Amino acid sequence: MQEDREHTNLASRRNFIAGMGALGASALFGGIAPAALAKSTAPLKIGSLNTYSKIYAALGNSNLNGMNLYFEQIGNTIAGRKIEIIREDDELNPQVGLQKLKKLVESDSCDIITGIQGSNIAMAAVQYMRESQAFVLCSGAGITNLSYTGLPYLFRCSTSSYTTLSTMGEWLYGNRAKEVVVSASDFAGGRNAVIEFKSGFVRRGGKISKEIYPPLGNSDFSPYLADIRNTNAKASFSFYAGSDAVRFVKQYGEYGLSKSCLLTGSGFMLDGDTLPAQGRMAIGAINALHYADTLDNAANRKFVADYQARFKELPNVYAEYGYVAARTMHMAIEAVGGDTSDKNKLRAAMRAVRFDAPRGPFRFTPETQSPTHNVYIREVAEIDGRITNKVIYTVPEVPEPAKLPI
């Protein structure tokens, strides 16, 4: 499942002070030039570009909550610089997202941008990120192509759908079904998720009986559920998120499909932001993700307890994204002494980050700058009166392949 990875050497570039005048000024400030001194104590501007409205509103707000929780725990300061978060809503619209990204980079002069939940937004922003050389830590979009853009200052601390869904496809073929019908919201993230699942499932010999793509923001799934039933498949695989996931899973159960066609899918369809509304209709569904709030490790126990105390609810995967993003930025920016002006040094520091996150071991895959982390096969169950996910199988530390797999 893992391809051989080509190892590359990171070429570092060093800035130097030209001229005796600059050298003299530097000496007066203990070896730090006045501009660098001012930069190191200026507020650390972090642009939080995410979807804070429409069907993904809960996702963006959870992401920001997780980030704020971590920053509050470190006194909202990194390397002597007070943290200033500038929040912008992309409205799940690529054009709006691009405008807001330009604002954060050009008008707000943010040191680093994080967020970007929608895969359609992220891909629409690639060319601008290339032109502007903006430093971006994506804590949302899972589309695989984002990892293969060749952008040196683009990192991702959330997930790549390839690692999760190809793993899911292989496991499902080996353990539950040899033929499935697939469905997903008709947008970049949904279609990409199907491709990733197929890369594992079909490669093992699995058969796809039909592919179904309802529009994003759909309210009535009955005609699509009829299509699923008519295939006579024993299992389905789906990708939906936000309110689409709630409606799809509830209507799937109400339609009676769960009795004849096992519901499986991306973990984003069956997680903390959707399960309370999906309720018992979700029980028994199989899904894959890199996080579950029931994980029994020290980092997750602390994260769950702290998040509950702060926000009076359990964290979901999007909150964990924000929390991991905050810690990643903390570690990397501390490593460069708070100086974010040298992007190559910050990049090297970011690539060196590794720690035990709530999700388990976390580090960046060097070739793609997306995570290497565990993938968990989960089953929705009722535990202590709560509808949640229990982990039934763990695939440890799955990296992305060095080259685009599709």
From TrEMBL:
Gene3D superfamilies: 3.40.50.2300
Record bears the keyword Cell membrane: no
Pfam family, one: Peripla_BP_6
Coiled coil regions, renumbered to chain: none
Domain Leucine-binding protein: 43-381
Sorted UniProt keywords: Signal
UniProt keyword Mitochondrion, yes or no: no
InterPro entries: BCAA_transport, Leu-bd, Peripla_BP_I, TAT_signal
Xref: CDD domains: PBP1_RPA0668_benzoate-like
PANTHER family in the record: LEUCINE-SPECIFIC-BINDING PROTEIN, PERIPLASMIC BINDING PROTEIN OF ABC TRANSPORTER FOR NATURAL AMINO ACIDS
Similarity annotation: Belongs to the leucine-binding protein family.
Name assigned to this protein: ABC transporter substrate-binding protein
